[in-house]
UniProtKB/TrEMBL annotation:
Role, per record: Catalyzes the oxidative decarboxylation of 6-phosphogluconate to ribulose 5-phosphate and CO(2), with concomitant reduction of NADP to NADPH.
GO BP: any one term: pentose-phosphate shunt
Subunit structure: Homodimer.
Lineage top rank: taxon: Bacteria
GO molecular function: NADP binding; phosphogluconate dehydrogenase (decarboxylating) activity
Active site: K183 (proton acceptor), E190 (proton donor)
UniProt cross-references to NCBIfam families, sorted A to Z: gnd, PRK09287.1
Protein name per the record: 6-phosphogluconate dehydrogenase, decarboxylating
EC numbers, comma separated: 1.1.1.44
6-phosphogluconate dehydrogenase C-terminal domain segment(s): 179-468
Keyword Calcium: no
Annotated binding of substrate, by residue: N103, S129, G130, G131, H186, N187, Y191, K261, R288, R446, H452
InterPro entries: 6-PGluconate_DH-like_C_sf, 6PGD_dom2, 6PGDH_C, 6PGDH_Gnd/GntZ, 6PGDH_NADP-bd, 6PGdom_BS, NAD(P)-bd_dom_sf, Pgluconate_DH
Provenance organism: Phyllobacterium brassicacearum
Length: 471
């Protein structure tokens, strides 16, 4: 019996996705560049062996799948994807679909689609989030492609995806690069969310002098409230863990230098290219870069000392409550930015990304999954494309939440603790709600040195200022 679907790349994600597909009653033919991994994977598949066809060549893989064939590529992003497409295409027909499920840059997805000829297979760009566990038991799946291609792969994607109260977390979000773009912004938001959590951890650790275990208990408590999310849940667990070698809290023996594979940076770059503020994401990317300057930070720490800053004066429950509330406010602003970038890209590329659906398929399966995304989905219902900060439900929350965020950022600044993402979120909020900003001065300066002209408040047209009068 032939397979329903094929999968290339039995690394962490591919192997788990293949098992997920098999577990959901579909037959899957698999191939891996390093052939021995295919047989190892097959031997370890246990009860799912019957649903798996291990293949040693791409030709064998193509022959093992019932036409028209859907084939998922889950290999290293970048050149490996191009190489696999070139190697695979000779064995495929026009009706077949190659689905790139890796973390591709959406520009590559658009290019790959354009490079395929009229008789080549169709190409679909699909973002998958949820890590190893998600891939195995239900990820969030963000698809970019035609409705016809999606209709063909929808049954298997719905089956393997995460479910939020029974609803599948897989959706077609637009044509060509839309799925990979949404995945990129998902990762950018993930960076901002993680950074804000780390900043709050820093205030609790260095501002209030709390031990990891105590901080973990605070996060555990918060996870039962409005901050309830996978990231808060794992933060509590991480802080409770003990290092086996030293007996110290695990977090205390880990080098404070964060890795990054690039998707967060792409999100910041795309926001900049679109001219849409995503300062929470940008701050989070920059914070990871600063974290990598381990030696320099040590040198600067010696050079500057503590600059006379001290521990936070206000360490009571009221301040801990403000941290909870402020973190939520920071998240609202950062998510508002992320969704705004998607709305902007959607307009720019004519993608029509449904924002409410995007929030819905992030409610389960992915790394930023949370209850909060259900409220975001509700806010976008009927007001697609409008900034989240203008949704009535969020206006109410930000009215009180911003006061807490302000308190946290101000207190942290006074004692010299960095809160780049939380501060960026607060500044975005304050700038966004300022009806009369300060760009009037920028326009005057631009006109002064470059005769760029400006618009007046009281008259239509372009004007220049009386700068020669003042030298
Ligand atoms: P792994 O490193 O575990 O596996 C990489 C896979 O790619 C292996 O099967 C490897 O084959 C194959 N590969 C690498 N280079 C080539 C090449 N030139 N030609 C053919 N095959 C090649 O990676 P992951 O499973 O973690 O990641 C796969 C994709 O999924 C990436 O795009 C990643 O960004 C994305 N992703 C990862 C997530 C995660 O949490 N890990 C989450 C969401 C997406 P071989 O065995 O021969 O080396």
């Amino acid at each position: 019996q032939q397979a329903d679907i094929g999968l290339i790349g039995l690394g962490v994600m591919g192997a788990n996705l293949a098992l997920n597909i098999a577990d959901n009653g579909y037959r899957v033919a698999v191939f891996n560049r390093t052939v021995v991994k295919t047989s190892e994977f097959y031997e370890e598949a246990g009860r799912l062996k019957d649903q798996i066809i291990p293949c040693e060549t791409l030709e064998e893989l193509a022959k093992s799948i019932r036409a028209p064939r859907p084939i998922i590529l889950m290999v290293k992003a970048g050149e490996a994807v191009d190489e696999q497409i070139v190697a695979l295409t000779p064995y495929l027909a026009k009706d077949d679909i190659i689905i790139d499920a890796g973390n591709a840059n959406f520009h590559d997805t658009v290019r790959r689609l354009a490079e395929l000829g009229p008789n080549d297979p169709t190409f679909v760009g699909m973002g998958v989030s949820g890590g190893e566990e998600g891939a195995r038991h239900g990820p969030s799946i963000m698809v970019g492609g035609t409705p016809e291609s999606y209709a063909r792969i929808e049954p298997v994607l719905t089956a393997i995806s995460a479910k939020y109260e029974g609803e599948s977390c897989s959706a077609l979000l637009g044509p060509d690069g839309a799925g990979h773009f949404v995945k990129t912004i998902h990762n950018g938001i993930e960076y901002a969310d993680m950074q804000m959590i780390a900043e709050v951890y820093g205030v609790l650790r260095d501002g209030l002098g709390l031990a990891p275990e105590a901080i973990g208990s605070i996060f555990e408590k918060w996870n039962a409230g409005p901050l309830n999310s996978y990231l808060i849940e794992i933060t509590a667990k991480v802080l409770a863990a003990t290092d086996k070698k030293t007996g110290k809290p695990a977090v205390d023996v880990i080098l404070d230098s964060a890795g990054q594979k690039g998707t967060g940076r792409w999100a910041a770059i795309e926001a900049q290219m679109l001219g849409i503020p995503a300062t929470g994401i940008e701050a989070a990317v920059a914070a990871r870069s600063i974290s990598s300057l381990v030696k320099e930070r040590s040198e600067a720490s010696k050079a500057y000392g503590d600059l006379g800053t001290a521990k936070l004066a206000d360490g009571g429950q009221a301040f801990i409550d403000a941290l909870e509330d402020g973190l939520l406010a920071g998240k609202i602003a950062a998510y508002a930015q992320g969704f705004d970038v998607m709305a902007g890209a959607s307009k720019e590329h004519g993608w029509n990304i449904p924002l409410a659906t995007t929030a819905r398929i992030w409610r389960a399966g992915c790394i930023i999954r949370s209850q909060f995304l259900d409220q975001i989905a509700a806010a976008f219902e009927g007001s697609e494309g409008k900034n989240l900060l203008l949704a009535p439900a969020f206006i109410e929350r930000m009215k009180t939440g911003s006061a807490s965020l302000r308190k946290v950022v101000a207190q942290a600044a006074l004692v010299g603790l960095p809160t780049p993402a939380l501060s960026a979120a607060l500044n975005y909020f304050d700038g966004y709600r300022q009806a009369r900003g300060t760009a009037s001065l920028i326009q005057a300066q631009r006109d002064f040195f470059g005769a760029h002209g400006f618009k007046r408040l009281d008259e239509e047209g372009d004007f220049h200022g009386p700068w020669s009068d003042v030298g």
